[in-house]
Specification:
mainly alpha, three-stranded antiparallel beta sheet, 66% helix, transmembrane, O-antigen polysaccharide polymerase Wzy, membrane, transmembrane helix
Length: 535
């Protein structure tokens, strides 16, 4: 987890990313204007180009990525929300404004909120002195920046146990279920052994024999994730490895072509191509059986039903046809809540701009700075804290009445539909912000993101000649990538600031401390020999 700051000349993976990023944006803009000429789509192109210029010129630098890895990943997901829609919709023969009802306003506000996020990130990363603050020093003393294989495997077992126990709960973990919610906070630890695949990142040695055990472990994680009936959980271990691998390549100046022969790369591309189709089928089968979760069905039975659906060719063909029909047709927001935008569920997860358009539509309908949205936000802010603390402070909050998302509340106020609450609809930072705070959302979002990025940067420690990555940061690397993706409201960064960060740090420290005492492990900040990094 320690890196030398000496210089080298190669930055191949970053140069390739910039090169193909430029190519994609240029050809996408040309294609959009040729095939879908309209002022609305020109505005969408402008949003994508402005976002790419800001991201490429100011932030797509090796020094920034390695000195601010975890905050960079959080910021990256916000950039992707502006970048993905243009090429992704074009590939699917759709305009970028597909299904929008207020496209010009949506593209303008989305560009504006991205600029606000960029300013917040800029304010965090551009400073003259590279000094550790009090929080970084505290985490360093608490052993956040050192580990060994024993600790990682024990953490992984704890995470697996937590996952299996939460799967034993018939439905999702509910508000008020203290035991299940407590265990749910440890689930991410199941990915701890994965960082052993990259010794220069984890700072621990690992033999090829150990790698075989990890690959078997990864396969088990993927199979287990099917039982969650969650598409995100299904891809979580694979994308965790992909992110760690990308940081590994960048840090060590390694070319992909030096690791894999051209034939292996071609095979991998074919595997990805056909694998995406298989993942799409799994996704359809999961969605088809998801309704069974409401019928108190056992998780193993749910997993069995999902695989049975996959094996029924006629059913799968019908589901594919139904999916294409649903995705090729959109309905107005006046009719119902409709998020259909991109066919690929992975791209849709990080690039669904129609959700932004829809939330802005309802923000306009109920009025900016809506009093009911503000009241709900305040109540959910109090609900961030544990009930014992609220009770001690004399604050009465019934969390069982808060089992709904900001998107649900926005839709409920806008339509008066009594069935709106509890659907856990996604929302957007700008739509939720305007509906709750009006134009004050821009400075509020700036402050929330600024301090969130600062906390994330505490998982990196600077010495005179090196930087050190924390074990917790590496384990939860995909969590950082998804924390601010294009589906959140303002309550998400606030919850991270008030509770999420500190709770995760405390529970992680406590577990590592107990494991160290049980196995008689001592602190050993061993510096390993690494290739020099070019900054």
């Amino acid at each position: 987890m320690i890196y030398s700051l000496k210089k080298q000349n190669k930055e191949e993976i970053l140069k390739l990313f910039i090169k193909y990023g430029n190519i994609v944006i240029v050809f996408s803009v040309i294609g959009e204007i040729i095939f879908f000429p309209s002022w609305a789509n020109v505005a969408g192109c402008a949003m994508a180009v402005i976002s790419w210029i800001i991201f490429n010129v100011l932030f797509l630098k090796k020094r920034i990525i390695l000195f601010h890895t975890f905050s960079f990943l959080a910021y990256l997901s916000m950039f992707l929300a502006c970048y993905i829609p243009l090429p992704a919709t074009l590939i699917e023969a759709k305009p970028i404004s597909y299904g929008f009802q207020n496209p010009l306003e949506t593209f303008f506000y989305q560009t504006l909120i991205f600029i606000v996020a960029s300013l917040a990130f800029f304010a965090v990363i551009y400073k003259k002195a590279r000094r550790n603050n009090y929080l970084q020093k505290t985490l360093y003393r608490l052993n956040f920046f050192n580990t060994n294989p024993t600790v990682l495997w024990v953490l992984g077992i704890i995470g697996l146990f937590s996952r299996i126990q939460t799967l034993a709960v018939v439905n999702e973990v509910q508000i008020g279920d203290v035991g299940s919610k407590f265990l749910d906070g440890f689930v991410y630890l199941q990915y701890a052994p994965l960082i052993l695949l990259f010794p220069t990142l984890s700072g621990v040695s690992n033999s090829n024999k150990g790698n075989k055990s990890i690959f078997v472990y990864v396969i088990f994680l993927v199979v287990l994730s099917f039982a969650t009936n969650s598409r995100q959980q299904m891809i979580y271990p694979l994308l965790t490895i992909l992110l760690l691998f990308s940081i590994y390549l960048l840090k060590d100046n390694i070319s992909v072509f030096s690791l894999f022969s051209p034939s292996k790369i071609v095979f991998a591309l074919f595997f990805v191509f056909f694998g995406l189709g298989f993942l799409s089928d799994i996704s359809l089968a999961m969605l088809e059986n998801r309704i069974l979760r409401k019928d108190n069905i056992d998780r193993m039975e749910l997993l069995t039903k999902t695989f049975e659906t996959l094996q029924q060719d006629d059913v799968m063909e019908s589901l594919r046809a139904k999916s294409l029909e649903n995705q090729s047709s959109v309905v107005t927001y006046e009719t119902t809540w409709d998020e259909n935008y991109l066919n690929n569920f992975m791209l849709n997860r990080y690039g669904n701009l129609r959700v932004v358009d829809e939330t802005i539509y309802y923000a306009n309908k109920i009025g900016f700075a809506n009093s009911k949205m503000q009241e709900t936000f305040l109540t959910k802010t109090f609900a961030i804290y544990p009930l014992p603390i609220l009770t001690a402070l004399g604050i009465d909050v019934d969390k069982t009445n808060l089992d709904f998302s900001p998107g649900d509340m926005l839709y409920f106020i806008g339509t008066g539909n009594p069935n709106a609450l509890g659907g856990h609809r996604v929302t957007s930072l700008i739509g939720d912000g305007l509906a709750t705070f009006g134009y004050w959302c821009f400075p509020i979002v700036f402050v929330l993101l600024f301090f969130s990025f600062k906390l994330m940067d505490s998982f990196i420690y600077f010495t005179k000649t090196d930087i050190v990555f924390s074990t917790l940061g590496l384990i939860n690397i995909f969590g950082f990538f998804g924390i601010f993706r294009n589906s959140i409201g303002c309550i998400v960064p606030l919850e991270y600031l008030l509770r999420g960060f500190f709770q995760q740090c405390f529970t992680f420290w406590l577990l590592v401390f107990i494991i160290g005492r049980i196995f008689g492990l001592k602190k050993n900040y061993k510096k390993i020999s690494l290739q020099a990094i070019n900054f």
